[in-house]
């Protein structure tokens, strides 16, 4: 019987992904009582990741670890975050599922600690403490983005004063946790039909946890299991802003009233115009192009 399935998506981050898997294996060695499978799905990488993953899988098999197996799925296309995770989950045999970004690193006994803390809790989903580096905390949980929270996040840098995002120092019930690292049961995940595959990247976890909230499920945060998260290692700033704007609009269309959607679009247009104006002031063509693209996304949606 498999206790835990760890799902990791690989896409053109060969060395980062290798480091992630190595730290996960090292963490699992702190508690060999957990029967674990690591499922790695490669989204058609072109940087040698596939070959590296084959070698790593072979190495683990040669070590005869009775508590650990590696499953490798090589996709012929880039499935993105949502489709990739859903596809990998279909191959999972574990009672529990741990989703990790390839740019995460498990510190010490983080994986077994998160597994045991979650197993003793009443949460349906839970995240761990994330750091950019060991002395720089990442605010990795928060409140749902209603119009007020969205306004504060877009214009008042509310992440910096922990209104929209924060990182508690004790076990806490929260609205959502970062999709870079969260644990659940296979039963709970399948009750929600997994991630919404209309979302390619960004907002996938917020949508998942909002649907969990609607169904009366709870999300928790545990501060003691620690993971490093090299946020944005597989994306560009240009893509990030456009994807985030697309995610905002999709989320509001799906879950909020029309007047809330109208208000959101006004805020996103204003944010884009401010970004464009700032780009002209500081003579930054990349900033101008970035927010022009974002503005067009709002107009088209």
Automatic annotation (TrEMBL):
<dbReference type="InterPro" id="IPR029044">
    <property type="entry name" value="Nucleotide-diphossugar_trans"/>
</dbReference>
<dbReference type="InterPro" id="IPR001173">
    <property type="entry name" value="Glyco_trans_2-like"/>
</dbReference>
<keyword id="KW-0472">Membrane</keyword>
<keyword id="KW-1133">Transmembrane helix</keyword>
<dbReference type="Pfam" id="PF00535">
    <property type="entry name" value="Glycos_transf_2"/>
</dbReference>
<feature type="transmembrane region" description="Helical">
    <location>
        <begin position="262"/>
        <end position="283"/>
    </location>
</feature>
<keyword id="KW-0812">Transmembrane</keyword>
<protein>
    <recommendedName>
        <fullName>Glycosyltransferase 2-like domain-containing protein</fullName>
    </recommendedName>
</protein>
<feature type="domain" description="Glycosyltransferase 2-like">
    <location>
        <begin position="5"/>
        <end position="133"/>
    </location>
</feature>
């Amino acid at each position: 019987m498999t206790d835990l399935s760890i799902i990791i998506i690989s896409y053109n981050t060969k060395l980062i992904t290798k480091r992630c898997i190595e730290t996960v294996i090292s963490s699992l060695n702190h508690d060999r009582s957990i029967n674990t499978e690591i499922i790695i799905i490669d989204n058609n990488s072109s940087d040698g990741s596939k070959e590296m993953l084959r070698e790593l899988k072979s190495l683990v098999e040669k070590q005869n670890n009775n508590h650990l197996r590696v499953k490798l799925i090589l996709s012929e296309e880039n499935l993105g975050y949502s489709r990739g995770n859903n596809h990998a989950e279909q191959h999972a045999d574990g009672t529990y599922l741990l989703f990790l970004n390839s740019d995460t690193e498990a510190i010490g006994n983080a994986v077994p600690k998160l597994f045991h803390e979650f197993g003793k809790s009443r949460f349906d989903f839970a995240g761990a403490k994330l750091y950019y580096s060991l002395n720089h905390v990442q605010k990795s949980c928060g409140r749902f983005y209603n119009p007020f929270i969205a306004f504060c996040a877009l214009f008042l840098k509310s992440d910096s004063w922990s209104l929209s995002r924060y990182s508690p120092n004790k076990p806490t019930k929260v609205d959502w946790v970062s999709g870079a690292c969260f644990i659940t049961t296979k039963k709970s995940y399948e009750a929600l039909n997994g991630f919404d595959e209309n979302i390619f990247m960004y907002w996938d976890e917020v949508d998942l946890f909002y649907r969990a909230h609607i169904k009366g499920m709870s999300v928790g945060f545990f501060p003691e299991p620690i993971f490093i998260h090299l946020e944005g290692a597989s994306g560009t700033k240009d893509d990030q802003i456009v994807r985030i704007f697309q995610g905002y609009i999709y989320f509001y269309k799906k879950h909020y009233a029309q007047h809330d959607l109208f208000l959101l679009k006004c805020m996103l247009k204003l944010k884009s115009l401010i970004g464009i104006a700032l780009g002209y002031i500081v003579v930054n063509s990349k900033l101008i192009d970035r927010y022009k693209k974002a503005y067009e996304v709002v107009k088209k949606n």
